[in-house]
Amino acid sequence: LKIAILKETAADERRVAMIPSVAQRIAKLGASLVLEQGGGAAATYTDAAYTQAGITTEADQQKLLGDADIVLAVQPPSVDTVKKMKPGSLLVSFIYAKTQPDLVKALRDGKITTFAMELIPRISRAQAMDALSSQAALAGYYAPLLGCVHMQKILPMMTTAVGSLRAARVLVMGLGVAGLQALATAHRLGAVCEGYDVRPETKEEAESVGARFVDTGVDARGAGGYARELTPEEKTKVRAALSQHIAQADLIITTAAVPGKHAPRLIDADQLAAMKEGSVVVDMGAPNGGNCEGTKAGEIIKVGPVTLVGPTNLPSCLAAQASELYAKNIYNLLEQVVHDGTLKPDFTDDVIKGTTLTHDGAITNDAIKQFIE
Ligand code: NAD
After folding, report:
1. Coiled coil located at which positions (predicted)?
2. How far is the CA of 221 from the centre of ligand 1 (A)?
């Protein structure tokens, strides 16, 4: 069983899908692994480190993929890359199918079995495979650090010979996996922290990491433990409850998301204009349209008193460990489908079924199939 590890090509992507130590564990499942030459370098894993772990490298992508049974990647590969894969082989990668119709058709037509990492069900049994969570946790940790770089203030209270500096106020909006890590990090750095979400259970979670919960009185729990979109009346209520907290913040981190929808708008232009001079907003919703009015994905801009930061790939900023966690997520997934050196997915298993996007010449995910075909 040959497993190929692709070198990522997206401009801001430093991660690699498999790191040497985890590759060694996969080899014990009865597989031989080959890395596309230089594939781990940007994430601090040199070719020499792979070689030491018994992983060979290959510069020619056609040779790498032509006889590979399983191909591992982080970002959706190009259609050209997919065309080099052999029919019946398995691709494990983030795909984001709705934004990649041509890729999905190429996977279907090439008879590739695709495990789309973003489709891993968010259930207890699949937690160890949940790459959305592992990457969001690191992104959330990094967001306050990124915010700090653009502030002209420190986060903690500090007593100096010439007087005391007050602690900064940090507001995190959206308390999923990323938001809670952002709150925990800002709290550890000494900020006075507030958190807000539309799922009431996040109150206790925010308090458990040392933050105060801003209760807007709106409960928007939706299906599957996710939030639903707010009604216009709820939006007005939330806006009124939050405006003062937004105005007082030195740093705001927004992470709100509703599955399948544009990022919900949490800060409008008037609220932004009412913020303190020198304050910073890190908008983690940037790739999905932004939680803040005016956010530009991939850019850092000044809007009135505020520096508005729109990061598009925070996990890549922590590529060494983001790759480590992603590689472990993949290991836990492959362990379910590789037995005695043979690929034998059980498509009746809930996790495998939920994660499979294409198989045997068909799009097997109904929602994506309807969207694309
Ligand atoms: P996400 O990235 O989809 O959304 C981030 C947060 O934004 C969520 O907490 C959501 O409630 C919030 N949000 C949406 N609209 C909002 C609005 N208008 N204002 C403020 N906040 C808003 O979330 P996620 O981190 O992927 O996690 C979503 C859920 O899935 C959580 O309940 C989490 O506990 C759960 N989860 C379960 C598992 C598991 O069991 N394996 C793993 C990860 C996450």
Report:
1. none
2. 10
Tokens of 82: 């997919």
pLDDT tens for 38-57 read 999 999 999 999 999 999 99
Q: Where are the alpha helices (DSSP H) in 227-311?
A: 232-248, 269-273
Q: Is 313 helix (H, G, I), strand (E, B) or coil?
A: coil
| 3-state secondary structure at position 7 | coil
**Element holding 21 (H helix, E strand):** helix 20-27
Tokens of 142: 């990094």
CA of 297 to the centre of ligand 1 (A): 21
Structure tokens at 17: 């899908």
Check if the beta carbon of residue 165 is closer than 8 Å to that of residue 154. Answer: yes
The pTM of this model reads 0.96
* Ramachandran assignment for 75, one of left (phi > 0), alpha (psi -120 to 50 degrees), beta (any other): beta
d(CA 319, CA 341): 29
Cβ count within 10 A of residue 66: 14
What is the whole-number distance in angstroms between the Cα of residue 225 and the centre of ligand 1?
A: 7
User: How far is Cα 343 from Cα 322, in angstroms, rounded to an integer?
Assistant: 26
Query: Is 231 a pocket residue for ligand 1 (Cβ < 6 Å)?
Result: no
For residue 188, what are the contacts with CB-CB under 8 A and spacing of at least 6?
A: none
202-215: pLDDT as tens digits: 999 999 999 999 99
CB 243 within 8 A of CB 274: yes
Q: Identify whether the C-beta of residue 206 lies closer than 8 Å to the C-beta of residue 183.
A: yes
Q: Is the CB of 176 under 6 A from ligand 1?
A: yes
Residue 280 CB contacts under 8 Å (≥ 6 apart), including other chains: 147, 150, 151, 250, 251, 252, 306, 307, 308, 309
ipTM for the assembly? 0.95
What is the residue type of 366?
Answer: D
Ligand 1 pocket member 257 (CB < 6 A) = yes
Task: Tell me the C-alpha distance between 368 and 279, whole Å.
Answer: 41
1 in contact with ligand 1, CB cutoff 6 A: no
The 8-class DSSP code of residue 75 comes to S
